[in-house]
Amino acid sequence: xxxxxxxxxxxxxxxxxxxxxxxxxxxxxxxxxxxxxxxxxxxxxxxxxxxxxxxxxxxxxxxxxxxxxxxxxxxxxxxxxxxxxxxxxxxxxxxxxxxxxxxxxxxxxxxxxxxxxxxxxxxxxxxxxxxxxxxxxxxxxxxxxxxxxxxxxxxxxxxxxxxxxxxxxxxxxxxxxxxxxxxxxxxxxxxxxxxxxxxxxxxxxxxxxxxxxxxxxxxxxxxxxxxxxxxxxxxxxxxxxxxxxxxxxxxxxxxxxxxxxxxxxxxxxxxxx
Length: 273
Description:
The chain is mainly β. The protein has two domains: 110 residues, Immunoglobulin-like (Sandwich), CATH 2.60.40; 142 residues, Immunoglobulin-like. The protein is 12% helix and 45% strand. Strands 10, 11, 12, 15, 17 and 20 form a six-stranded mixed beta sheet that branches. Strands 1, 3, 6, 7 and 9 form a five-stranded mixed beta sheet that branches. Strands 13, 14, 16, 18 and 19 form a five-stranded antiparallel beta sheet that branches. A hairpin with a 5-residue loop joins strand 18 and strand 19.
């Protein structure tokens, strides 16, 4: 096991960048061939009885091992934890050109489940201008963070959560003190009601995002950005909390924040012309 850990670490550090896309994996019965994926292997199927693909089905890992005996070409189909589908031709060769294949994140042939973009309600021009005007107003205010979360040099600050008209405005600041740029994948907010231990009363509702102002797509190393996200307003009840998820595109860094509604909600007291 220690030897495998060493192999994985070496592969992560010295993985070859700019490799050509892997279409065919050459195998034989004399040696095992390692196939390394950008995310954990959830399911794999081999076409052809003379080929085998071994991976950890109990604890998801990033690599599997292929072997085969002489015979017609087969194929390997893999689905990763990210829902990406990868397909390869398996071919027997007495002399192997290499023993390890590193699969790039863009080498997938498709997604297990098609990604349907969330339908954002169309807004008229006056509404979009109203969102932008009020977002600028909020960013112009001096406010102190009401909640802060930190992780490996990343800092996410929640400044305000404001009801205004028929919308709810979330004012945030994101600071990247790490050495790596942060490519923003998704910014989601959920309303939580009830107790997880009592499943019958537990509710988790994703809030509908209708506009953003100043939200970064990429935050450079040692950079920071204040921004506002606009959500559809809803009628809340007592005992509601919020959860915020700020995730990295094609990465593993995720910032999570939980906040009590009773501490954050501000009444609609602003007027803009």
